[in-house]
Design brief:
By secondary structure, this protein is mainly β. It has helices at residues 44-47, 285-291, and strands spanning 24-25, 38-39, 66-69, 74-77, 82-86, 96-99, 110-119, 125-130, 143-144, 162-167, 184-198, 205-212, 230-231, 240-245, 248-262, 272-280, 299-300. It is built from 2 helices and 17 strands. It starts with 23 loop residues before the first strand and ends in a 16-residue tail after the last strand.
Length: 316
């Protein structure tokens, strides 16, 4: 199912003249195209979670709450029984979610069936409920709750924040016996926030965070290359956008759509840059908290000027 975002949007908070061109959702039905995430400088040891290598860019962080379903969709745990995915591309009721306590594809997966789920308003967020709770070995993530607008994004702690982007691995052979271990991780910086974004089919309307896959030469224009610049592809919808808070992974958004944006002036001679749009959890925190049955779900209020940065390490 191909979806188009509003064809004209302005990036706020960066010195970039930006225009969203045709954007295609990262998942869908009969016309769905499934492909691996595009990651600059990709290496299996650095980017594939289940390569189980110490060089993994997410090494030392807990990814156990990021799972995939038997029907090939993504889910990220908010509580031991509740997960978040994309409304247009979520695990089906009755499908089985698999989670791994570490990054070893040979470990025994924690498998739970999806009992039910519901969409959050008109957004592309979908809350799923497992039939039984996962054990303590599978983490639940806090999620961002700060209120953002296009006018306030530039001064927020999220603007230009380095983040992790999950998706399908381009490694041909994959890992283990199940498609649930087909997971890769790239990096990027948050470069835009848009209110009430929509697609041409009006399948979803919501507030989004946007990342741009910068080229190495963009640094001369003031845009920092993250080392493993990522752009999601078909089949990645529902995957998590993660940031670091106090040394732990925190959920900031759920992958919704992809497209392109032009920059002007262009330092490299290639005007178009791929973008990925994520439905921002902070705009729907009230709705999420009202339907999560377990108390005590942690939420972070990001303050303007807060020092939140991923450990960049390899690939700079």
């Amino acid at each position: 199912m191909l979806l188009k975002l509003t064809p004209c949007m302005r990036f706020c908070g960066v010195a970039r003249a930006a225009m969203l061109a045709v954007a295609v959702a990262c998942g869908g039905g009969a016309a769905r195209c499934v492909g691996a995430s595009l990651i600059q400088n990709f290496a299996a040891a650095s980017n594939d979670r289940f390569a189980n290598d110490a060089a993994f860019i997410g090494s030392g962080l807990d990814w156990s709450g990021v799972g995939r379903s038997s029907d090939g969709h993504w889910g990220t745990m908010l509580t031991p029984t509740v997960f978040l995915s994309a409304s247009h591309y979520h695990p089906g009721v009755g499908s089985v979610m698999s989670f791994f306590p570490g990054n070893d594809p040979g470990a025994t997966a924690v498998a739970r069936s999806v009992a039910s789920g519901q969409r959050i308003g008109t957004s592309d967020l979908w809350v799923g409920f497992l039939s039984t709770a996962v054990p303590a070995s599978i983490t639940s993530y806090e999620f961002a709750q700060v209120t953002l607008t296009e006018a306030t994004f530039a001064a927020s702690g999220l603007s230009d924040l380095l983040v992790f982007m999950g998706g399908l691995t381009p490694t041909a052979t994959g890992y283990g016996a199940a498609t649930t271990t087909v997971q890769t991780v790239g990096s990027n910086r948050l470069e835009g926030f848009f209110e009430d974004a929509t697609d041409d089919g009006h399948v979803a309307i919501g507030d989004i965070l946007a990342t741009v896959q910068n080229l190495a030469g963009d640094g001369s224009f003031g845009f920092t290359h993250s080392g493993f610049e990522a752009q999601l592809q078909g089949g990645d919808s529902g995957s998590p956008l993660m940031m670091l808070a106090d040394g732990r992974l925190m959920l900031a958004g759920i992958a919704w759509a992809i497209g392109t944006t032009d920059i002007d002036p262009d330092p490299t001679g290639v005007a178009a840059r791929p973008i990925t749009a994520f439905t921002y959890t902070g705009s729907y925190a009230g709705e999420l908290l009202s339907i999560i049955p377990e108390p005590g779900v942690g939420v972070l209020a990001l303050l303007a000027g807060a020092v939140l940065a991923l450990r960049r390490g390899r690939g700079r």
